[in-house]
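Suppose a colleague, Dr. K., hands you the sequence of a protein chain of 516 amino acids and asks what its three-dimensional shape might be. Before reaching for any lab equipment, you can write down a predicted structure in token form. Begin with the sequence itself:
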Amino acid sequence: MKKLPIGVQDYKKIIEGDYVYVDKTKYIYELISSEVPIFLSRPRRFGKSLTISTLYYIFKGEKELFRGTYIYDKWDFKEYPVIKISLLDVVSETENDLKEGLLRIIKKEAKKYNLSLESNHFKYSFDELIITLSEKKGEKVVILVDEYEKPILDNVTNKEKAERYREILRDFYVTIKSKDEYIKFVFMTGITKFTKTGVFSALNNLNDISLNKKYSQMLGYTQEELEYYFKEHIEETAREIGMGKEELIENLKEYYNGFSFDGRRSVYNPFSILRFFEEREFKNYWFESGSPSFLYEYIKGRKVTYEELVKYPVSAMDFTTREIEDANANIFFAQAGYLTFKDVRRYGFEEEYILDYPNIEVRNSFSKLILEANYGVEKEKIKEVNREIIKSLEKNDIRRMIEEIKRIISSIPYNLHRGEERYYHSLIYTIIASAGVNVTAEELTSIGRSDIVIEERGKVYIFEIKIDKGAREGIRQIKEKRYYEKYVGKEIYLIGIKISSKERNIEEYVIEKVGG
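The predicted structure, expressed as tokens, is then:
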């Protein structure tokens, strides 16, 4: 059984070390054959650095590393001079730190080719490296850039500083455009897409494939890739945890799949899958490997709610009209991977994307963070209520679950309440989602949208929430709109909830069972 490449981002080490490699060279072959400069944005830990490494060894001409892959007998593995730039380790406390970091990268690349650069300026040394390296090798150079905007993201809550760093990076990257005659191929990655006036304003020849349907599954694992490349790991894990193979696959799909970059096809986050097969336990690996402290401050500062994140569809243009520090929260979280495209709608020639959490892992962790940062609920209280909600669902004790929801609502500070129905929709959904159960909001039916739906252990719970209206009004709407019809054949519970705007909590609830 092949080893799991956890933390291994070097393609050569993966191949020679007998690690699992999911072959993505078909996409790479198509891109490098065009010779058009390429940009691709994806969330963190999605395989961007491995893609950069794979390109590096292709252009270094190391053909035998690619035996058995798609590209092996299709590409002419000729060696080219390669400049590899990663901003992952660049310190950006000050402008001088950033400039010094860029200069050190260029000097290090020059040293690899035994070149001595005259300039000690971060931009001019880059100019000099491209020209000198191309002339020395008698070939055009390949430029690979990883995490192009990291210094900006490190300072995303400091608008003035982010803009100053953007200007420095703009001066640095413009070299790629001005030295085009010396360059064979360019591939750049980052977490955020660029705007027309941002870092790449001068790079009008850069082809952004971030939302291109053709490359939507270039990074991440498809369902087919998961079941093919991890077949032995799936079988062994299923045996160890006492779960059927098909059941395990379905649980993996619900917990870790769902990231979509075109609104049609989805992929798994590689980091979560690799960690799951290592530990063989369902945990929130990807989310908890990130920067929850930063997210906490971001959510707290903007008073982010679930409904505000997913209410409005977004278009491709929404991702390029504002710099990331000025973008709406839903745009920022979609690029960071905490929201994803769940569907796509076409209006004439325009397409709009429906946003939502990609899977249980992200929905669970992000909901906990919103409860803490936005609603002021203490961590221990969230954990306690989570446990009680899970126990309630295990025993099908709906009343107990609602009482737990009431308890957490009562702990929210007075000044954080808003007397709007949608506020309580978002709040109750977030409380339930924080427990890690399979819950959806605004579930679309043929004649309307139900507020909240839980599907757990073969049972379906449909909630309709009203403010200052009787709980039976909620039941009546569920029946009138026939929200339950898509679940016919299952055990279904209809739950009407009345919120008192005066008491700022659930005042009354009615439960009715249908089907099952």
